Amino acid sequence: MLNERNPIPVSEAVKRVTGFYKKGETEYIPLTNAHQRILADDLKADHDVPPFDRSPYDGYALRSADTTEVTEHNPKILEVVGHIGAGSVHHEHVANNQVVRIMTGAPIPDGADAVIMLEDTTTFEQDGRTYVTVRKSLQHQQNISFQGEDVGEGSVLVNKGTVINPGIVALLATFGYAQVPVTKKPVIGVIATGSELLEVDQPLEQGKIRNSNAYMIMAQLERAGAIPKYYGQLPDDLSESLEKISEVMKEVDFVVTTGGVSVGDYDLLPEIYHQIGAEVLFNKVAMRPGSVTTVAAIDDRLLYGLSGNPSACYVGFELFVRPIIDHYLAKETIGMQQEQAILAADFSKANPFDRFVRGRYQVKNGQLVAEPTGKDKSNMVHSLAKANCFIQLPGGTEGYKKGDQVTIHLLGE
Amino acid sequence: MLNERNPIPVSEAVKRVTGFYKKGETEYIPLTNAHQRILADDLKADHDVPPFDRSPYDGYALRSADTTEVTEHNPKILEVVGHIGAGSVHHEHVANNQVVRIMTGAPIPDGADAVIMLEDTTTFEQDGRTYVTVRKSLQHQQNISFQGEDVGEGSVLVNKGTVINPGIVALLATFGYAQVPVTKKPVIGVIATGSELLEVDQPLEQGKIRNSNAYMIMAQLERAGAIPKYYGQLPDDLSESLEKISEVMKEVDFVVTTGGVSVGDYDLLPEIYHQIGAEVLFNKVAMRPGSVTTVAAIDDRLLYGLSGNPSACYVGFELFVRPIIDHYLAKETIGMQQEQAILAADFSKANPFDRFVRGRYQVKNGQLVAEPTGKDKSNMVHSLAKANCFIQLPGGTEGYKKGDQVTIHLLGE
């Protein structure tokens, strides 16, 4: 299995992968489950907002013409002829020198054309009738929220492909989306390979380590909006691995394996790809870590062979698996958000390949600054815990200095 | 119910609320459910990483002393006496002029003190034995990952109070946390008040609007890491509301109501607080929107009375409910992250109160810039959908200009 491998640029590798994307179906889910899901149709207003002319204040609805001459020193007394709570309607016409007590959000009664705030009035009773003293003049249409002034019926408020946040939930509720159209989450199979792996609950043994990559990948899948399905660990045994992977391929949308893609004698995946008739899209990428990342395809199904090295596995996931999930979910934005930042520490290692250094960015006085989260030994899981971005350092240079501008890829923590 | 209300500053309101915080208990959950939960104990290494001296490469373990004179032009032939796959152990001592084939991650056999990479060797067979030709000299301890060099046994890797991300999941797996100690999520009751409210699946009626606040609050609760429990809508009826709220208070950690806290005739919450013996911590805050936000306490339980206005409700939640959830979860950081940003548009309205404008920030050439997401009419739900921050504009000024530096509060989208 010691085939020659030709590294391809990261951008080319991403392109080959996204050529195989498929979009998930639409499903309808209850509004209470919709937060963080991806909207599958445009969100449209089924009515005007406000749905009728309404009062923005607690106060009195009146005819502005009745207040023309009114001032602090020339108050006027008007009769209170009704009372509208929010949710109720006043059916009589408001006549000259009449007012109707109105609550915030209640519909303006017929005949009235303005609202005076409660604070600008005083009330009194006389002979079983209620009166209000007003001390200011109101303009025609003053203090009225007009039908449709916020949102017109039929307008598109949120585009499909958007992640549903609490503000969008409020819009969905307002427009009667008790069931919300969202894109189905892809189900992605996860398999760890390597006879050196112990499960998390097993005690350590000489020569072995606990499987951490599969759990990390499952968390990365969740963060990306997919449903991970764990199929356990495979020993370095060709026929057993072949059988398992063929079986898993039938049950899920994509498969991610970790380990088994280097050039060692026990790295079986290349042989497995060959035997199940998968087309290898690439098996070497010009980057560090993760250069041995391999992706193969059978029909429209992708089989990701991520490195067994935790950092390489992590980077390979975010660069090559995440965009496929974003495509599947039909998200508006694909892949990690990229920004410019100032490097906060020297990074002296030169490299012929692009480097994706695990880093942490912060905002200092409104400016993004980023620094590596640890020594960049590729076997160090430690630095992943603090990372909230990758710092991309293009290859072929003499290293980078504190203060240099760099591109960072946000992990979405 | 037209009591005098004295507005207090936002910071004072937050202080009064956090005085009532309580911390959630620790619960143990399976590792596969731990992503995004809050670590309740420090994460400690139960063993060294690597747990033994191991090979970082596929290659041959050898005695460096055997390669002292070796160069490209003065190669040396050594005998291959064994084969160590990852996960297995070589038990014989490696003697002079012997090498052992070794996989990435496998333990260095006794007697060997360096590893030569596979690429720097060639092999051949002769008389049934296997030999390797080496063409470079190795240093003592070259290409060995030493026991404990990444992480020493007993060291604290992640502090309690940290949000568990995929990198931390990898650490938890490595150190055998099949069950993970996390802080229990608080259960928070949500009640909408107001006779004008229709449920989401009801058709519109004159004078009524669909309840959007309760659903928005439930999504905000989820985003903050709490479990929302919805108790439906209450009409503006004192005895019914009193009974319901008293009942709900017994079942949850905190209660959030929306609506019913203004000074209108149907705003019953002040009377309810009085009748159930709740101490009102404040009922007016010097801010816009959300000035009528009310918080009351019975024993150690808080009762939040958020405004019925969607924007005011949203802001009141993030400023006053979210810190209590963060405290309950014992998070390392409490409340919204605050940063400095450049205002990208004029905001001309002056205000005696602090204003929290719904905004959207972006990074432009490494610099945070923020602008309001819509007209700032407080009844506009629309602008919440795009908001990813609040832009804080201190009161008492003549408005703000494009280019001004402002404080923004990140919503964590």
From TrEMBL, chains A, B:
Stated name of the protein: Molybdopterin molybdenumtransferase
SUPFAM superfamilies: MoeA C-terminal domain-like, MoeA N-terminal region -like, Molybdenum cofactor biosynthesis proteins
CDD domains given in the database record: MoeA
Annotated ranges, domain MoaB/Mog: 189-327
Keyword Cytoplasm: no
GO molecular function: metal ion binding; molybdopterin molybdotransferase activity
Gene Ontology terms: biological process: Mo-molybdopterin cofactor biosynthetic process
Organism: Gracilibacillus thailandensis
Classification via InterPro entries: MoaB/Mog-like_dom_sf (IPR036425), MoaB/Mog_dom (IPR001453), MoeA-like (IPR038987), MoeA_C_domain_IV (IPR005111), MoeA_C_domain_IV_sf (IPR036688), MoeA_linker/N (IPR005110), MoeA_linker/N_sf (IPR036135)
Primary role: Catalyzes the insertion of molybdate into adenylated molybdopterin with the concomitant release of AMP.
Stated family: Belongs to the MoeA family.
Pfam families, A to Z: MoCF_biosynth, MoeA_C, MoeA_N
Pathway note: Cofactor biosynthesis; molybdopterin biosynthesis
NCBIfam families: Glp_gephyrin, molyb_syn
Origin organism lineage: Bacteria, Bacillati, Bacillota, Bacilli, Bacillales
Cofactor: Mg(2+)
Keyword Metal-binding on entry: yes
